[in-house]
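README: folding subset

This subset contains proteins for which both the sequence and a predicted C-alpha cell string are available. Records are stored as plain text. Below is the entry for PGG domain-containing protein (260 residues), shown exactly as it appears on disk.
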Amino acid sequence: MFLYDYLMSVGIHKDRMLSDIDYEGNSIIHLAASLGSPPSTAPGVMLQMMWDVLWLKRLKYDSFPHLWQLQNSSGKTALQVFEENHETLRKDAEKTTKELANCVLIVSVLIATINFAAVFTVPGGFEQISGNPIYLKNKHWEFYCLMIYLAGGLLSSLITMGTLLGIIFLRFDAEDFYAALPWKYVFTTIAMLYSAGFTILACCQAYIIETVVVNTFIFLIVLLCAYVLMAVVFMDTAYLIFDYMYYVIRHSLSYRGQEI
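--- output ---
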C-alpha cells in the first residue's frame, strides 16, 4: 500500500496505471479484487477480509468511473470477481468472528451478573428495620462510589452484550467488513475494557469499605499493576483493528462526497 501511495503521489504514468486493461480484459479494479491483493496482508481471516474490502474500495475510487462496471473477458465485473474469490475467506471470517463474539459474550454476561448481584449484596448488609445499607450512614461517600462503580460495570457489560449481539446477527456481506463490523468490534473492545475496569474498582472499593486493606500503598500498587496489565492486553488485541480504522477514516475523508 505504501508503494501504491508513492506512485500516486509522484504522478508518473498514474493515469496509464489506473486506466490500463490487460489481455484478459481486467482493469486495476479487477486485479484489486484478487484474493490477498493488498501489499501487506493482515494476520487473521477477519482482518484480511477487512483490508481486502478497503483495498478494493481504494482502487475503485482512484480509478476512472467508466471502469467500475467494466466486464473482463469472462463477463465479470470487479465486484463479481471479488465476491467469487473471497467467498471462502468471507465464510471463514464469519465463522471466526461469531466464535469470538460468543466467547466474549459469555464473559460479559458473567461480569454483568457479578455487578448485578453485588448491588443487592452490599458490604455490611442491610439494617433490619429501615432496610438501608448499614454502611450508608457512617461511610456515605465510600458507599456511593461503590454503587457508581457497580452501575458503571453493569452498564458497560450491557453495552458489550448489545454490540456483540449486533456482530452475531450481522449478514456478513463483503460491505459489512468495511465499516459496520470494525466499528462494532471497537465499541465492544472499549466497553469490555470499561466493564472490567469498573468491576475491579468496585471490588477494591468494597475492600476499602470493609476496612480489609491494611497497607494502602501496597493496595494502590496492586491496583496499578492490574490496570497496566489490562492496558497491555487491550493494546495487544485492539492495535490492529485501530490501525485499520485509521485508514478507513483517512480514506473516507479523502473520498468525501463519494459513495465509498
